[in-house]
Amino acid sequence: MMDRVIAHIKDSDFVVTSVKKSVTKSHAPAPFTTSSMQQDAINKLNLSSKQVMACAQELYEGVALGDEGKVALVTYIRSDSVRVSDEARVNAKAYIEKRFGAEYYPAKPNIYKSKGDNVQDAHEAIRPTHFERTPESVKPYLSASNYKLYKLIYERFLASQMAEATYNSVSAEIEANDCQFKVTGKTPKFAGYTAIYMESKAVKDDEEKEVKLPKLIKGDKLNLLQLLPEQKFTKPSPRYTESSLIKAMEEDGIGRPATYAPTLTILTTRKYVEKEGKFLKPTELGMNVTDLLQKYFSSIINVDFTAKMEDDLDKVANEKLEWHDLIRSFYDKFLPQLKSANLDNSSQSLKPQPVVSDVKCEKCGAYMVYREGRYGKFLACPNYPKCKNIKSLAEPAKAVAKCPKCGKQVFMRKSKKGKIFYACEDSENCKFMSWDLPLDEKCPKCDCYLVQKETKNKIIKRCSNPDCDYMQMTDKPKVEEPDTTSGENGENNE
């Protein structure tokens, strides 16, 4: 079919039959709530939800700013509201007009409405406490992650108060031998809020990506440069990322601003899910637990129950419902389900069966199985506790130098926390260990052996004797990239 279409149009004239021009607008995004802050920071800063909240907590509790002392840089970080105080709005207007110009502030202030029926609105949106404390001015006092998050919060809030962005949009229709093609594109007309902030968006399919079109006039004949036929299939929904899972939880009314990050942390620490790149993948243990919970607690383990419970707890907080009545109605249904589950022995098989390896235990002859501990995977004898033999799956250590104490080989190893160190192969009789690589070179000052460490741009040799100050520093050799831009005789080819 595709080949017939290509043959039908490849030698035809491609004629522009319609050109429509319009001005489209993009409204500024609302200021951050806890959920939207986590989603944007996860997508843009490559942090986990737990890391985002840790950084945000430090910004809220206060940072030492030199002579100013400890200063809170952002407002309360656990908020589901997009409400902005009048004072903050007035201050933002003055700052925007001063920095960008009066045209960058809208004719009417941007007022946002919180989404969802269970929004508590106890705190205003997350914003900087003072606009004169720009990200660059406080950068020397912040860690890299805290600076990036503060910059994101600062720019998002300013953007939320700015004028909308406008674009010149073009839609053109092209005909070739009775076949219709359509292409759209847009170019910026007025930056508006995008002068300081760009929203993070999910990856789009190729056909959805915006393109910049050349000037097109109805009746133009276009030259065919290339035909690129492509077959596409309906794709299944992608796995959740931390960002998209938080968004789904918020949309379904599951959790509160204070519980999004801890919920995701529990899923990973209990090994119900594991990460594949940015995506969350359920483990066998996680699926087993889910099956068991749905078997006995189906009335509880569902989105509707969780959302209703959140709503009922709000009613308790607002004194519209007695907590005794709420708890009693819950336990009247829950206790019989719990008793039934306790009588079932299937919970003993929740843990996935270990995978058998092709490695035999040299102590008892059984084929060893893969286990996972605190510091990663290892091989273990299946006859535990009768046989306690285990084997590391780590790469074999590399001999990198001679031991300065006994002359045997020094191996490069990794600590349990992943830090590299150097130790003598004869660990029972020789206790040599160093965080720096020992060299077969003597110190010109005290005759002790030298050690070497590397930074990003430097190679540093120093004496191993802590009382000796000898040190030699050299630049790392630069790797020259081949010049692929020049043609013959060194001249550029056009």
CATH homologous superfamily descriptor of the largest domain:
Topoisomerase I, domain 4
Mean pLDDT rating = 86
**Arrangement of strands in the largest sheet:** 5-4-1-6
Q: What's the number of extended β-strand segments?
A: 20
Structure classification? alpha+beta
How big a fraction of the residues is strand? 15-25%
Fraction of residues in helix: 25-40%
- Give the overall shape: extended
Kindly provide the radius of gyration, computed on alpha-carbon positions and rounded to a whole number of angstroms. 32 Å
Give the class-level CATH name of the largest domain: Mainly Alpha
State the low-pLDDT regions, or none. Answer: 202-208, 481-494
- What CATH calls the topology of the largest domain is Topoisomerase I, domain 4
Distance between the termini: 40 Å
Number of domains: 5
CATH architecture annotation of the largest domain: Orthogonal Bundle
